Amino acid sequence: MDSQPKGFLEAPVAVERNCSKVSGAVLVYRLSRFGWFSGVLAGRSLEQGFSPSSKTVQRAPSAGWIIARRVLRVIAVFFAQTVTSGTSAEDDNRPLLILPIRCHLGSDCYIQNFVDHDEDPKGASDYNCGERTYDGHNGTDFRLPDLKAASRGVDVLAAAPGRIKAIRDGIQDVSVRVGGDSSVAGKECGNGIIIEHKADWSTQYCHLAKGTIRVRTGDQVSAGDPIGRVGLSGKTEFSHLHFTVRRGNLVVDPFAYGAPPSTCRSGTSLWDPALGRTIDYRDREIINSGFASTAVSMDLIESGEILSRPASPHAPLVAYVRAIGLKPGDVQAIKIEDAEGKQIARYEIPAITTAKAQAFITVGSAQNARPWTGAYTGYYNVRNNGQVTLEKTFKIEIVP
Ligand SMILES: [Zn+2]
Q: How many angstroms is it from 114 CA to the middle of ligand 1?
């Protein structure tokens, strides 16, 4: 069933941008290194057609070419329908947005990717000048810690009052890794909803779980109304809500409305001030950690299956952490200590050279002559230039 009006499917692609500090090859590595990616990479859109000209200009920067390049950039920006410029900040029927997902940022859900602000045809930059985005990403990804969290049912909420403009349902909840990109061609958003708000503003909600949409086209909704649940439909490999804000056809970063193109740390927030500091930008975050009785893989963490292999007295004792937003130069270390502070195992990953959308680290020890028993502590930290930038302690009590 495919009930949305024509244009809904194309919406995530048509507004995609090509900007970059990272080469395509590196980006592919970064995304595929951990076997997953989000959203709407397909369809490089209108702006790509301008990038070769832009490169030529850079090699021959005569005055004429500089002017031509500027004109081309303006045209490219216009056609690519990118993030809105600062010229529109005076309007103001802008919506006040609540969190579009029923969870607590930083504790049971996390922002994986922000809107890409970088105008260059390579690389990406989020609103805070960080790399918590990828080239052309046109929304905000709110992710859950694993697939099991999604299976328990997490509501997607209307971010502001409005009218349901379009709906699509009926897409299977299955990782795009199973069927490949072609399996979701033209349906990258998966099961989705568009809500139109006053003054030509709209919000779009993607990757919802099949059969969970509880509104119909034309319905009026209030901010906070549940409209569906987080799923795994469309072009995604992890459970998350892809949330896009638009004014007309222009993508707006709700963290930086009015930010001039290719700038960061500017613009204004559209988020309800009641969200307080929960919506603050985080450089790096830990989204999973714990002990297990088996070798840990990214798939075991993402599926949530690792939670069904808890530490036990007569199996290897393994600690693991998955973090997102790691930066070049980050050194990760993890260790296990017993109740007396004696080190059981320790592992350190040398400084990484490129940003990592996500990464995991694990260390373990085979069972000793005696069974594991009592309290054990896991300690993880990230250091950059000698400074601890992220750390977590976690404990377990093993009862024979
Ligand atoms: Zn996304």
A: 8
| Site of tokens 């004429």 | 64
Residue 137 Cα to ligand 1 middle (Å): 6
Between the CA of 293 and the centroid of ligand 1 the distance, in Å, is 33
How many angstroms is it from 215 CA to the middle of ligand 1?
22
Which residues on neighbouring strands pair with residue 204, listed in sequence order?
A: 194, 244
Cα–ligand 1 centroid distance for 56 (angstroms):
31
R_g of the chain, CA atoms, integer Å: 22
Cα–Cα distance list, 249 to 125, 201, 387 (Å): 21, 9, 43
Q: What is the CATH number of domain 285-398?
A: 2.60.40.2550
**Cβ-proximal residues to 262 (8 Å cutoff; 6+ apart), any chain:** 19, 117, 118, 119, 120
CATH of 11-48+82-277 among 2.70.70.10, 2.40.400.10, 3.40.50.2000, 3.40.1350.10: 2.70.70.10
| Residue ranges per structural domain of the chain | 11-48+82-277, 285-398
CA of 187 to the centre of ligand 1 (A): 13
pLDDT along the chain (400 residues), means of 10: 29 25 24 25 21 22 40 37 46 90 97 94 92 96 97 97 98 96 96 97 98 98 98 97 97 96 92 96 97 96 96 95 97 97 97 95 88 96 97 96
